[in-house]
Amino acid sequence: MIYVSLISYTPDPERTIATAARVSASPVGATEIKKQLTPQAVDRLLTRLLTSGHLSTFEHASFTFAIEGISRVTSHQLVRHRIASFTQQSQRYVSLKEADYITPATISARPELEAKYHDLARDCHRLYLELLEAGIPAEDARYVLPSAMETRLVMTMNARELLHACSLRLCLRAQWEIVELFELIKAEVEMVAPRLGAELKPKCYRLGYCDEAESCGIFPTAKEVLDEKAKKE
Q1: DSSP bridge partners of 84
Q2: Cβ proximity of 82 and 187 under 8 Å
Q3: How far apart are CA 58 and CA 196, in angstroms?
Q4: Active-site annotation holder among 169, 173, 195, 206
Q5: What is the pLDDT of residues 77-114, one digit of tens each?
Q6: Is 169 a catalytic residue?
Q7: pTM of this structure
Q8: Where are the domains of the chain?
Q9: Cβ-based neighbours of 102, under 8 Å, separated by 6 or more
């Protein structure tokens, strides 16, 4: 089971973003601007920034999450987001005494295959423990562990990268485990920055169409939009 907790974040993140945006065209400093901004003004300014695509000031607000219970399959996808910081539990320095691993629902739905899956995962872990007992360093014994093994990490992202990551990872065509992860991340952000949290959604909602080759069905693809436009013309 995936666990996500927001352990640290920029205080008053939405006001911080709005304040930074006002600085570039204001005769007064950021401290005074922050005092003057009403919640309504913050909301209007964030809407204007999002609509215009002026997202650089969103980089002034950052969020740090504790993440547990994801597989190495998903953590490998997660660290591809380069505008972020990650500190992951090391299989080199931490000996994994328990066989904690993720089982996809598609495998659980096939009992005859699920049994083989569990047997293989447990056999790999048993060999791992045997290697450790024989004096093999954990950094070498870990080579036999499957990508399904659970891991934990700390991730820090600024608001701009969160917008980008969620635009990709909340897509219904994304891999199921990372979708679940980012749904939990979104929920954590919504508790402290609801206006920003509401914007953490698949990119098709902003585009009005799907820019992938195939759509999940929520929005038509760009090609379908163009074809429909051509018919009307």
Answers
A1: 157
A2: no
A3: 10
A4: 169
A5: 999 999 999 999 999 999 999 999 999 999 999 999 99
A6: yes
A7: 0.93
A8: 3-70+75-85+150-201, 104-144, 207-233
A9: 69, 70, 71, 73, 148, 150, 177
